[in-house]
Design a protein that fits this description.
single chain; 524 residues; mainly beta; four-stranded antiparallel β-sheet
Length: 524
């Protein structure tokens, strides 16, 4: 394992040339200190973009707050969270919410999670949900944490459809006597709401939550999106629970699910989706390491498959780092790279609008490109950002310029939230700074992989010039130089036979200006 980590970090060492200095532009800052925040309150409990609700071309931001921030709490309790909706704006976003969802009383905990549901009820919809819980008694009571029910409130959004009243409510009681009375037993858990996904490929996003039936039935539950959407479950992954990440990881046009509980399971979308895990990762699978949460990314290297990361930590040390995995026809648990950061939970998006997924960890951005990770990492640090500890995915455009923006939440001691504008000027590419990223399409693929004895490496050169193609093992040793010299622009291929089973890396270098790396696996 130590060898594997060393070679991954070695391959991450190279950086791409910048065609523009990507100093981010701050477009919004919400500072909670002006609300006289109590030191024990948690600012920005949860937050997400929710698409363009008012039709002005700018996406909106939904934030769950503890009530003490704005004084929405009732006299007899403090659990009455509020949820605030901030409107995007082409000129300047306001620091005052346009709408506020308030708890019905002091015993309702509103906004334990907020999530974007996408085109759930219509093709052009921007639907979203707010998760809440109702408590039996006053928080001062010894049994204050006994929940009466869980409730998921769904709102139709986009195209001027939005209002403060939910269009659908999924409620499940946590008490068996009330469940019998209301015929709605069980629980709903907010951490299991993934970003929008279309599992069956019908063009509508689907709702995925974990429902817990008091009669003993539990599992990940899917509600098909559509013009005829209803709150009757359509598909249940029995006895499957945990955090959900989504993406089209095998490139077949259907979104897939990564579910993390006691272990990680991959379920492939389709018509119908598969209810059997195609890849299972156990917690004891990596000697000396434990895993945290995976993150589904966009397609980082442009091969048509979404990619993903997995937060990892040493069991006996403080070392933490995310492992990066390429998507593909054959999913596996062998990391392709180790991302050199000490933040295990990262997020994705596309902050420079080039069509390649980017990797974001607070104030670090790794830009996607066909030759990722040599496309480079950008890091900025300001004194005001020194304790920012959580970034939201860059999947929303708050200033309406056509590029996704980057939202960062401050740590507890720095109750702030900021939005940095994405920019098409952030280009990573060759040493010629006048040449955009799309003009340098280095591509390298391996077919098949995994393979039994030999695989065909197909690579595309952007122009006639010097190149080298070699195979390296996990220790970084050159196993074989496959091709080198001068070649014409276009597609080329070479067949390689592995000396034995194992994980190898094919490395293509072109004119000293770009590099592509592809993992190849031989199984005999």
């Amino acid at each position: 394992m130590r060898k594997m980590l060393m070679v991954m970090l070695m391959l991450m060492g190279a950086g791409g040339a910048w065609a523009y200095d990507p100093t981010p532009q701050l477009i919004w800052l919400l500072d909670a200190s002006r609300y006289n925040q109590d030191s024990e309150s948690q600012m920005f409990y949860d937050f997400t973009g929710i698409g363009d609700q008012n039709g002005d071309g700018c996406d909106e931001l939904l934030i769950s707050q503890e009530p003490i921030i704005r004084g929405y709490n009732q006299p007899d309790g403090w659990w009455a969270n509020c949820v605030e909706l901030y409107l995007g704006n082409r000129d300047e976003m306001s620091n005052e919410p346009a709408y506020v969802f308030e708890a019905q009383d002091s015993l309702e905990s509103l906004g334990l999670a907020v999530t974007y549901l996408g085109a759930l009820t219509a093709n052009d919809a921007h639907d979203f949900a707010i998760w809440t819980a109702k408590y039996w008694s006053n928080p001062a009571h010894p049994n204050w944490d006994r929940r009466l029910y869980h409730e998921l409130r769904l709102y139709k959004g986009g195209g001027g459809r939005f209002d403060l009243e939910p269009d659908y409510v999924i409620r499940q009681y946590t008490d068996t006597t009330l469940a019998d009375e209301y015929e709605a037993p069980g629980g709903i858990f907010p951490e299991d709401l993934g970003r929008p996904c279309d599992l069956n490929g019908d063009g509508f996003d689907d709702l995925v939550v974990w429902l817990n039936d008091l009669h003993g039935n539990r599992g990940l539950t899917v509600f098909w999106g559509g013009d005829d959407f209803d709150i009757t479950p359509d598909l249940v992954f029995a006895d499957v629970s945990g955090e959900v990440e989504t993406g089209d990881f095998n490139g077949d046009g259907y979104d897939d699910l990564i579910v993390t509980g006691n272990q990680i399971n991959f379920f492939l979308g389709g018509n119908p989706p598969t209810c059997e895990s195609v890849l299972t990762i156990r917690r004891d699978q990596f000697e000396g390491w434990g895993f945290d949460l995976p993150t589904g990314l966009l397609d980082v290297n442009g091969d048509g498959c979404d990619d993903w990361t997995l937060g990892m930590h040493r069991l006996e040390e403080l070392d933490t780092m995310p492992w990066f995995f390429y998507g593909g026809d054959s999913l596996d648990a062998e990391p392709d790279y180790v991302i050199p950061t000490y933040i295990t939970k990262i997020c994705g998006g596309d902050v420079n609008g080039d069509g390649y997924g980017d990797i974001i960890t607070g104030t670090n951005i790794w830009f996607g490109a066909p030759w990722f990770p040599e496309s480079g990492r950008y890091f900025w640090r300001e004194d005001s950002l020194s304790t920012y500890d959580y970034a939201n995915g860059a999947y929303f455009d708050y200033n309406g310029d056509g590029v996704f923006d980057h939202v960062i939440k401050g740590a507890k001691r720095l109750p702030r939230m900021v939005i940095y504008a994405g920019s098409r000027d952030w280009q990573v590419g060759v040493s010629n700074e006048e040449q955009p990223i799309d003009a340098f399409p280095i591509k390298l693929i391996s077919t098949p992989s995994p393979f039994n004895s030999s695989t065909t490496l197909t690579y595309t050169l952007p122009y006639r010039g010097q190149y080298e193609l070699g195979i390296y093992d996990l220790s970084g040793r050159l196993v074989r130089a496959l091709a080198e010299g001068v070649a014409e622009a276009g597609e080329h291929s070479v067949v390689w036979s592995a000396p034995g089973s194992g994980v190898y890396f094919a490395v293509l270098e072109v004119g000293g200006e770009g590099k592509a790396v592809r993992k190849v696996v031989c199984v005999r």
